[in-house]
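Hypothesis: this fold can be encoded by more than one sequence.
Test: take the structure tokens below, design a sequence, compare later.
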């Protein structure tokens, strides 16, 4: 299909609002109308923003949680597939029991053991929302906040949030801006910038559940995974790192050669038992370059869709949807079945503030936190 035709059908779909529900038409993206997201949350306006490139790849993002709602990429047979789980309207996101469909999570992505850390000799207690631990910024983390929308263009949208001093127990007023850019070569680039007025900790990440079948509830166990890391950070049974950095060699966490996720996911191995599957932080190989480098590559043979994950961060959390129960129904009636979505979260290491051997997560006044994550799509037939 010609570029002009792709664009005009997508634009018509968005602006005429005739795009939603039912079967995929002609293999083209079914974009959601902004009207399904236009409401007030906490007294602030929420909407939906659509980025489309010349190939027809598209992403829709709401400022409720700076959240990816859908992401349509072309598959090997020429049809477009929505490769992230989520819901069709804002009401469903507000009601959802799984709050991690696509948002930016933070201030600290993943867990802080017992929600405690000390900084400059002072102890801080964060809210606890995952057993005894703090997860993804607490009960009302970045993903539950309404972000202020800045720049909006055909291929870019930026959103900011000011997290007040004391929110969820974190010190300092933290200002964070996240910019999403959809590139001509089918990459969704996410750039984070944050500053603070008092010493604090920061580790935001993007939390989409990807399914490269298209989100049709199929298991992601068939995805072929490659993670460019020879070590990981083992945890205790509560998924809090022990502080050790252990080799993946000889374990089911060794994805240095392409391996189907399902081939070893139920192997008898302590890390997999603790997590009920994959839910670990890999220590990425770094060349020393400041540019984002390839961290992981996932391929679904049945659709031919390949997703490369690139980052400048030291860690990557690969979570295989072990906590999904099938009790939630998302876009187009698709169910979030057990292991029907994977998260690949670029990050500092979980619980970093409590382990001297992990990279520092401290941000001080006058410093600027930056983080880039790229999800790049291509087709392998
Ligand atoms: C992941 C985390 C998992 C789980 C998931 C949200 O980042 O590692 O343990 O909490 O988020 O369901």
């Amino acid at each position: 299909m010609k570029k002009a035709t792709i664009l005009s059908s997508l634009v018509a779909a968005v602006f005429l609002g005739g795009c939603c529900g039912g079967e995929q038409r002609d293999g083209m993206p079914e974009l959601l109308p902004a009207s399904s997201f236009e409401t007030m949350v906490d007294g602030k306006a929420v909407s939906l923003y659509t980025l489309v490139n010349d190939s027809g790849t598209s992403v829709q993002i709401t400022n409720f949680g700076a959240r990816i709602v859908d992401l349509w990429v072309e598959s090997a047979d020429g049809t477009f597939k929505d490769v992230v789980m989520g819901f069709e309207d804002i009401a469903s996101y507000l009601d959802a029991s799984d709050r991690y469909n696509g948002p930016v999570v933070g201030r600290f992505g993943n867990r802080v053991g017992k929600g405690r850390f000390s900084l400059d000799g002072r102890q801080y207690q964060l809210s606890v929302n995952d057993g005894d631990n703090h997860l993804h910024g607490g009960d009302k983390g970045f993903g539950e906040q309404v972000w202020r929308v800045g720049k909006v263009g055909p291929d870019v949208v930026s959103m900011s949030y000011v997290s007040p001093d004391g929110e969820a127990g974190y010190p300092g007023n933290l200002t964070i801006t996240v910019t999403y850019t959809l590139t001509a070569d089918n990459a969704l680039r996410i750039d984070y910038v944050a500053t603070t007025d008092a010493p604090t900790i920061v580790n935001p990440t993007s939390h989409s559940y990807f399914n490269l079948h298209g989100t049709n509830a199929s298991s992601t166990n068939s995805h072929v995974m490659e993670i460019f890391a020879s070590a990981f950070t083992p945890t205790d049974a509560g998924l809090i790192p022990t502080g050790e950095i252990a080799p993946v060699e000889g374990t089911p966490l060794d994805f240095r050669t392409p391996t189907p996720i399902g081939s070893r996911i139920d192997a008898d191995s302590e890390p997999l038992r603790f997590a009920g599957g994959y839910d670990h932080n890999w220590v990425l190989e770094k060349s020393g370059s400041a540019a984002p480098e390839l961290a992981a590559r996932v391929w679904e043979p049945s659709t031919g869709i390949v997703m490369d994950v690139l980052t400048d961060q030291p860690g990557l959390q690969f979570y295989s949807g072990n906590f999904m129960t099938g009790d939630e129904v998302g876009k187009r009636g698709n169910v979030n079945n057990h292991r029907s979505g994977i998260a690949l979260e670029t990050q500092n290491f979980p619980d970093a503030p409590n382990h001297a051997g992990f990279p520092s997560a401290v941000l001080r006044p006058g410093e600027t936190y930056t983080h880039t994550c790229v999800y790049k799509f291509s087709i392998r037939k």
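Residues 1-9, 11-24 have pLDDT under 50 and may be disordered. The pocket of beta-D-galactopyranose is lined by residues 100, 110, 135, 239, 279, 317, 319, 323, 343, 345 (CB under 6 Å).
Hypothesis status: open.
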